[in-house]
């Protein structure tokens, strides 16, 4: 088995905030930055997943987004039902203390701290939206783009299932056992199927997330950022980074049509639909997802080297 170095979490001063991050793999390997989704923490890119990616020849960087985990908590009020309804139905975005573009700048600033001029950018769900923003606004910093379980923000796309919306709109409990119970219920819905390997880890995963710090108001601020940022569909036509769009056919939160829309919006993008995958990265599906990321990223680097 390949031994992979894991550098412990550190705090970087970047874009005017504290960003908690850690890295896996050789510092001289190709940089690959993982961006987690709404309310997620960097540890929700499982250690074992990161180790497997690093073993493919990457320096894997994961971090807590602002308002999550051990990164900075920002000011701003909770999102009301009325504001959310106006955004989704009337396309009237709420006021937001920051946007997805600001979160993209966080990523770039962290790369600056780490001395990374360009990287393969991988984002899941809201992280995919942030990754798209990076490819739009900072094209020279992106070696390749991998957008997972995400969307362009196109308001004409199908909305999440009622069950998924009801679960995610339920406020995060601050009591430890209630948080763990909600975490388990939520991921059972988002995985959209029976995945015993993941279900067996749900409690320990929830404990890790809770013990690192939960921030219910921060989740609302991240939702505000998503709603206030609008559609990227037209701007994505300017993206030149080699792009891979990965999406589950059973996703109950972000309809697979969103993946088709993303791939159609980015010139030359490839689409990979994973049969039976919901809005999660189940252990059972890691091999095909890691293979796809590995192949796409290294092909992009090889093409760039030939052009240079």
UniProtKB/TrEMBL annotation:
AB hydrolase-1 domain ranges (all copies): 31-281
Alphabetic keyword roster: Hydrolase
GO molecular function annotations of the record: triacylglycerol lipase activity
GO biological process: glycerolipid catabolic process
Name of the molecule in the record: Alpha/beta hydrolase
Native organism: Bradyrhizobium commune
Origin organism lineage: Bacteria, Pseudomonadati, Pseudomonadota, Alphaproteobacteria, Hyphomicrobiales
């Amino acid at each position: 088995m390949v031994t992979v170095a894991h550098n412990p979490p550190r705090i970087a001063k970047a874009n005017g905030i504290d960003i908690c991050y850690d890295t896996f793999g050789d510092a001289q390997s190709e940089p690959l930055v993982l961006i987690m989704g709404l309310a997620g923490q960097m540890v929700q890119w499982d250690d074992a997943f990161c180790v497997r990616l690093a073993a493919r020849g990457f320096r894997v960087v994961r971090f807590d987004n602002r308002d999550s985990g051990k990164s900075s908590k920002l000011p701003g009020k909770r999102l009301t039902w009325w504001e959310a309804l106006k955004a989704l139905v009337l396309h009237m975005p709420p006021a937001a203390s920051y946007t997805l573009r600001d979160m993209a700048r966080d990523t770039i600033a962290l790369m600056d701290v780490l001395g990374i001029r360009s990287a393969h950018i991988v984002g899941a769900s809201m992280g995919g939206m942030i990754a798209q923003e990076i490819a739009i606004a900072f094209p020279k910093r992106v070696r390749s783009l991998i957008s997972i379980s995400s969307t362009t923000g196109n308001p004409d796309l199908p909305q999440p299932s009622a069950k998924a919306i009801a679960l995610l709109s339920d406020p995060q409990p601050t009591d430890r056992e209630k948080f763990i119970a909600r975490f388990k219920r939520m991921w059972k819905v988002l995985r959209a199927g029976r995945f015993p390997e993941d279900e067996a880890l749900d409690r320990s995963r929830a404990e890790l997330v809770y013990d690192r710090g939960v921030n219910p108001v921060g989740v609302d601020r991240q939702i505000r950022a998503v709603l206030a940022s609008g559609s990227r569909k037209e701007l994505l036509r300017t993206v030149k980074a080699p792009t891979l769009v990965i999406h589950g056919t059973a996703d109950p939160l972000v309809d697979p049509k969103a993946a088709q829309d993303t791939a159609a919006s980015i010139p030359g993008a490839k689409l990979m639909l994973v049969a039976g995958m919901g809005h999660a990265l189940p252990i059972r599906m890691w091999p095909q997802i890691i293979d796809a990321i590995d192949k796409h990223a290294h092909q992009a680097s090889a093409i760039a080297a030939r052009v240079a």
